[in-house]
């Protein structure tokens, strides 16, 4: 039996007059998955996030949160969800403990369960030592931790994080990424971000939205296979003969990048050993021979920088 499906979105559309912000979005998120949700500005990402969190009704389509229809039973569905917007909704003049106690009441955590819930959230987010400090006196990284703590306080099945590492320093980013991976072991996580390395560091699945449509949806394992190189970069001291390189066993085609640089495409086994032998045999002098690996950034650019039929001018707030 597969993992429990925590979010199911079917055929989501959102119109603003004649403007179509979201078009036929469908996907599933299972327990234990961390989904990286990517898209350029104006692609429909924020609109989709607002629909998933119940802050915006779709023009068409349905969303189920932990099996509960978000449109039919919004209060029950939202109780299964924790949300951290891009700007953490923290009150700077409250202490961490006061704020989390307030959030526990908002989340309808029972009186007898509030203390254990707050202690559990603080421990998971590394806040044990700052409970009595004013939030306004904390660093941006700790304020983000407080924001995540309020999102998981009621132990929701789904946690949605919008740009959780914006404005953080490298050490803070590393800590938040580690927390997200830990949360992903027992929850379903959606991580909306513009930072591509963050997706590769924390996510198990990747989705890219462009012009309101999902144009890419794969697991990270499938993405890694897709990014697996089918080309070699070759640099030699003397200009190589493309025709002789083409004759090397396993080389399908040769793309010259300069007098002494070439990209060798292959489809089967890696012909690096045969290429090195040919370079040595012809006396060209080997300088570099390495796999030409595609990156997630290249995939993102290819999918989102093509010509468009219409201007996606502005996404609703």
Q: How are strands sequenced across the largest beta sheet?
A: 6-7-8-3-9-10
For the largest beta-sheet, the strand count, sense and barrel status come to: 6 strands, mixed
* Secondary structure: helix percent: 25-40%
Unreliable sequence segments: 307-317
> Structural class of the secondary structure composition?
alpha/beta
What overall geometry do the principal axes of the alpha carbons give?
elongated
Q: How would you spell out the order of helices and strands?
A: EEEHEEHEHHHEHEHEEHEHEEHEH
Secondary structure tally: strands:
14
What attributes characterize this protein structure?
317 residues; alpha/beta; Rossmann fold; Alpha-Beta Plaits; 2 domains; six-stranded mixed β-sheet; four-stranded antiparallel β-sheet; 11 helices; 14 strands; 33% helix; disordered C terminus
Description:
With 317 residues, this protein is an alpha/beta fold. The chain folds into two domains: 5-225, Rossmann fold (3-Layer(aba) Sandwich), CATH 3.40.50.300; 229-291, 2-Layer Sandwich (Alpha-Beta Plaits), CATH 3.30.70.1560. 33% of the residues lie in helices and 27% in strands. Strands 6-7-8-3-9-10 form a six-stranded mixed sheet. Strands 2-1-4-5 form a four-stranded antiparallel sheet. Helix 6 (170-183) links the parallel strand 7 and strand 8 (188-192). The chain is elongated, with a radius of gyration of 25 Å.
């Amino acid at each position: 039996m597969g993992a429990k499906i925590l979010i199911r979105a079917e055929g989501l559309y959102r119109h603003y007059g004649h403007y179509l912000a979201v078009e036929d979005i469908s996907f599933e998120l299972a327990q234990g998955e961390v989904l990286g949700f990517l898209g350029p500005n104006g692609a429909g990402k924020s609109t989709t996030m607002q629909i998933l969190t119940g802050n915006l009704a779709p023009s068409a389509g349905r969303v189920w949160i932990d099996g509960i229809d978000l449109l039919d039973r919004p209060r029950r569905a939202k109780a299964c969800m924790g949300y951290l917007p891009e700007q953490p909704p923290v009150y700077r003049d409250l202490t961490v403990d006061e704020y989390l106690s307030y959030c526990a009441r908002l989340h309808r955590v029972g009186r007898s369960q509030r203390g254990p819930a707050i202690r559990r959230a603080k421990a998971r987010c590394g806040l044990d030592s700052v409970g009595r400090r004013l939030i306004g006196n904390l660093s941006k990284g700790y304020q983000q931790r407080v924001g995540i703590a309020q999102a998981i306080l009621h132990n929701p099945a789904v946690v949605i994080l919008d740009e959780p590492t914006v404005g953080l320093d490298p050490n803070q980013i590393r800590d938040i990424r580690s927390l997200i991976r830990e949360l992903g072991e027992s929850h379903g996580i959606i991580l909306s971000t513009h930072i591509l390395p963050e997706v590769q560091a924390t996510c198990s699945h990747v989705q890219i939205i462009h012009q309101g449509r999902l144009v890419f949806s794969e697991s990270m394992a499938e993405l890694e296979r897709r990014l697996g190189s089918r080309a070699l970069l070759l640099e030699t001291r003397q200009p190589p003969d493309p025709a002789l390189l083409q004759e090397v066993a396993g080389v399908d085609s040769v793309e010259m990048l300069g007098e002494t640089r070439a990209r060798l495409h292959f489809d089967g086994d890696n012909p690096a050993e045969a290429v090195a032998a040919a370079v040595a045999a012809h006396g060209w002098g080997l300088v570099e021979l390495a796999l030409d690996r595609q990156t997630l950034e290249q995939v993102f650019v290819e999918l989102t920088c093509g010509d468009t039929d219409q201007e996606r001018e502005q996404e609703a707030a």
